[in-house]
Amino acid sequence: MAKDDNTETIIRSKQEYEEINKINKIVLQTDKLTKKFGGLIAVNNFDLKVSQGQISSLIGPNGAGKTTVFNVVTGIYKADGGKVLFEGEDLAGKKPHQIIKKGIARTFQNIRLFSNMTCLENVMAGQHCRSREGTWSSVLQTSGQRKEELEIKKNAEGRLKQVGLWRWRDELAKNIAYGNQRMLEIGRALASNPNLLILDEPSSGLNDKESEDLIVFLKSLLREDLTILLIEHDMNVVMGISHWVTVMDEGKKIAEGLPEDVYNNPQVIEAYLGKDEEEEE
Amino acid sequence: MELNKNINQKNSLFKNWLVIVVAILFIALALPFIINAYWVDVLFFFGVYALLGLSLNIVLGEVGLFDLGHMGFVAIGAYTTAILNTTFGIPIIILLPVSAIAAGAFAWLVCSPIIHLRGDYLCIVTIGMGEIVRLTLNNNPFGITGGSNGVYGIDFPSLGNFFVIDNSTKFYYYIWLIVGLTIVGLVNLQRSRIGRAWNCIREDEIAAEATGIDVRHYKLLAFVLGAGLAGVGGNIYASKLMIVSPESFSFMESCMLFCIVLIGGMGSIPGVLIGAAAISLFPEVFRAFAQYRMLIFGAAMVIMMIFRPGGIWPRKRGTVKFESLLIKAGEENG
Predict the structure, then answer these.
(1) What residues in A contact B324, CB-CB < 8 Å?
(2) Across the interface, do B209 and A170 touch by the CB < 8 Å criterion?
(3) Which of A16, A125, B209, B312 has the greatest number of CB atoms lying within 10 Å of its CB?
(4) Do A112 and B326 touch (CB under 8 A)?
(5) Interface contact flag, A96 B322, Cβ < 8 Å
């Protein structure tokens, strides 16, 4: 893990951010996205923009609909209205395995690893959408298949070293420490060489030291020309790495801006802590 | 130095394995000359159960799909062979791939609409599928399946007139040759991205889909391959017995195949062989207790589930150390 953050861009004002965005293209955009569960509107006309090479955060109180947005974007749920555009292409009707092939990889809030497979196998599985050998070439072990398999192993080794788990390569995923499992899941997502990495609460369940390491690690990813979108509860993590923050409450966007602006926004404070009773009168 | 030591260790381990495999192969080749024809037949049926167990292992062991109607696929293979051979006189060997394709195509057709079902629901539907196949064969549709009498007068497998598989010993070599080839193919599959994708689906379907695995496609692939292999088993079974009838493909037989995979260890090829041995050899060895067979069998299953829920020989993962491939990035930072 690299410790120097010299390449990091520091954005000081909204104007500066917009200037940067004129040069950088928008990677992911949701346009009036709506998702209903029965009578409940989980996501309501939600607009989100993620621009290239930056870390964007999506925050909000519990039940605000953050994970639902992620699930719609990655194809697990179908949107009831609105559009999801990835690099200008509409993702409507695409299945999760097609979306990851387009370049959006994700992790889950409650870690979802292939627990009875080794760490190495987990990361190798992450490259499934980037490999193409079929059943018969696998049965007959053709030279092409063996070559591809070697390539998969090499990439997996690189990614395991990147997330600092090379030592645990032959250990079952369920047997490694919780913090390591989080990193392994990120490693698996990275193995598909994504353009956009979506992380659902990557720091939940991690201690302060591990969270700090995670911040350094995520920043180091930006050098790979990767864009990151994350849901986060831990304000230290959000303030520490986000270039842009979007705040969501009850399915709607209530604020967006630079981390400091959002942090001091009265509406956001209200959403998180509730209304001051005196004002309510 | 360290690396050399490792390689030497690996080599010696490999040599040990090679010695064991060669020894087993030698014993297997010599066996028919030592034991009598009755036991050769028993070993033949051991081979049939091993082949069918391996075919179910693809669906149940590798992908974790509960398939309790596997005998339905075997029946399709056996009846394809029987009908085409008795009415058109097509040689059995040629019908081997034909049966596999017929059973595979049937699996594709039947499983496409039900593949999204999970766990118990899929289990119930496959039971229904197996029973429908059996009852349909029993009802003699278009007068081609011969009803409950079945189809009889099936030829021996032969290549022209000079190479005919017509006795127990030849059948024994024949089935174990096919089982051996199947094992090689399946081990290769286990080590490929296909095998990995199957295991990922078994572990976590949603994560598998999010990792880029087309869950539906790979589940269907498992069913089609499993059914194809079951069709091969059906072909050999039909040519050995020279008769096929619906009661050979009962629900109880499907349960037996299910037990083979569970006893041995899901997704483990040596496990399946042990399971097949337990199912086919055990009743022969303990003939004297024939009436208590099911009782002992049930008790054994219960004890197994308590003390060895993973099976007798579960698949081991990551026991062989994976060595660095990127020599430049040799330093470990884990």
Answers:
(1) 157
(2) no
(3) A125
(4) no
(5) no
* CATH number of the domain to which B94 belongs: 1.10.3470
Q: How far apart are the first and last CA of chain A?
A: 53
Task: Report the distance separating Cα A196 and Cα A102, nearest Å.
Answer: 10
DSSP β-ladder status, A40-51 and B243-244: unpaired
Structural domains of chain A ordered from first start: 1-103+194-281 (3.40.50.300), 115-191 (no CATH)
The answer to whether the Cβ–Cβ distance between B214 and A97 falls below 8 Å is: yes
Beta-bridged to residue A246, according to DSSP, are A58, A256
Does B236 map to a domain?
A: yes
pTM of the predicted model as reported, rounded to 2 decimal places: 0.88
Distance from CA of B271 to the nearest CA of A (A): 17
What are the pLDDT digits (tens) for B126-185? 999 999 999 999 998 888 888 888 888 888 888 777 788 888 888 899 999 999 999 999
**B36 Cβ under 8 Å from any chain A Cβ:** no
Residue A118 C-alpha, separation from nearest chain B C-alpha, in angstroms: 6
Q: Is the ipTM of this complex over 0.90?
A: no
Of A117, A139, A158, the CB nearest to B189: A139
* Structural domain boundaries enclosing B169: 11-307
pLDDT along chain A (281 residues), means of 10: 46 67 80 90 90 90 88 91 89 90 92 92 92 88 90 91 90 92 94 93 88 90 90 83 90 88 84 64 41
